[in-house]
Amino acid sequence: MPKAHNWQLGREMEFPYEAGFPKRQFAFVFNINRCLACQSCTMACKSTWTFSKGQEHMWWANVETKPYGGYPQWWDVKTLKLLEEANPDGQIWSGKVSDDPKQPYGQFAGKTVFEAGQKTLKPDSARVLGYLPTDEEWNLPNIYEDNPVGEKGAKNVYHRDGAQLPVHKTWFFYLARICNHCTYPACLAACPRKAIYKRPEDGIVLINQKECRGYRKCVEACPYKKSMYRGNTRISEKCVGCYPRVEGSDPESNGQPMETRCMAACIGQLRMQGLVLLNPDGTWKEERKNPLYYLVHVAKVALPLYPQFGTAPNGYYIPPRWVPREYLRQMFGPGVDPALERYANPDRELLAVLQLFRRSARIIFSYEIQEGPKVYEGELNGKPVTIYNDTVIAYGQDGKEIFRTTIDEPVYVRPAQHVNSL
Predict the structure, then answer these.
(1) For the chain, what percent of residues have pLDDT higher than 90?
(2) How far is it, in rounded angstroms, from Cα 269 to Cα 24?
(3) Alpha helix ranges (H) inside 345-397
(4) In the predicted model, is pLDDT for residue 364 greater than 90?
(5) CA atoms within 13 A on the CB side of 297
(6) Residues 21, 203: contact at Cβ < 8 Å?
(7) How far apart are CA 264 and CA 262, in angstroms?
């Protein structure tokens, strides 16, 4: 099996095909600290792409409550269990978080879904370790919504003392998910028809509907379960990354790249989507003023979802501050602790970049910060903090300004005669 460098794992890994990379890659960052599970993203996607017969239980975008929720149910727990059975006690990381773009999180010493599949699967045509969810596991996308973790071993009993950072004893959080449009897609690797491909212009992963025969190998292989089978057509479907918007061909885009429907609908301002340049080896080319590059490779507050699966997902998450660290390290890798420290104590640039989330439906390609006056000086998390009312300016693909916003957001007070009215 060919070798491919996976920078998220910090090493080469086995992959069924020779590595190939688009010039630009579709990627996104979700700030879980802001998600309120309003499901606006879910319904925006549903009303655009999966409203037809045979798609009733198909949710390309979903928000699930962790640790118990999942769509399909237990998708991550089952995949982690398969990896553990294939390589007992082997899912570990070595080294440390660094500035090395080829090993930013150290090195993963365990087996990926591709490598574990080579060891455990028969016949040889089965390339990726995975499982096929039952129909019942797809039926309840919001199962265990808002169900928290309480005292260990005590059912329906929660901690009676108050919540306090850095970790809450009773906790849950919302995990918003779409297809990660992985650099090494497991769905693509497993398809015997070669019906799945990455678009060379943006790396969005698509299924050629004419070539698909509904074998569901993609459904079985995708560790995130974002490839789905449609029973009435007997072919698989998945998130298409709203590619007409991304490429600027959507009538609303005026020829400029736009964010996807789920991104644009987010009222919690937790989503940012973009296009990042790639080097010939698949690592990100340095774009110091691209907000996604900054969040992932400079501030290092945004981390890949289950990087140990080996697919090199292009979905990144700013982890929730109140959740036990051991759980977060399993989900987002060894970069969790420095990411949360940096997010909880943001510097001047990070504060500015966080203001860019959801201010426009246009994709931001670069930003500029204009320094402003000091507006606050005090203490945060036991450390001195100074906040300046800087202005951050977003630019599009054409180099023109999209919008500008300030750190100190304006406050609007409703007049007394309208205080309780809309």
Answers:
(1) 88
(2) 24
(3) 348-354
(4) yes
(5) 19
(6) yes
(7) 6
- Max CA separation in the chain (angstroms): 74
Cα 287 to Cα 298: distance, rounded to the nearest angstrom:
10
Instruction: State both tokens at 305.
Output: 């979802």
CA angle 105-32-304, nearest 5°?
25
* pLDDT (average), residues 168-185: 97
Q: Determine which helix (DSSP H) or strand (DSSP E) holds 13, and give its type and residue range.
A: strand 11-14
Left, alpha or beta for 394 (phi > 0: left; psi -120 to 50: alpha)?
A: beta
Given the candidates 3.40.50.12780, 3.40.50.300, 3.40.190.170, 3.30.70.20, the CATH classification of the domain at 3-348 is 3.30.70.20
Nearest to 191 by CA among 248, 125, 110, 244: 125
216 has a pLDDT exceeding 80: yes
pTM above 0.90, yes or no: yes
Residues 227, 137: Cα–Cα separation, whole Å:
14
Q: Does the pLDDT of residue 416 top 80, yes or no?
A: yes
Burial (Cβ within 10 Å: 0-12, 13-18, ≥19) of residue 170: middle
Distance separating alpha carbons of residues 355 and 404, to the nearest angstrom: 10
Tens digits of per-residue pLDDT, 33-92?
999 999 999 999 999 999 999 999 999 999 999 999 999 999 999 999 999 999 999 999
Structure tokens belonging to residue 129: 């370790």
Per domain, the residue ranges of the chain are 3-348, 352-406
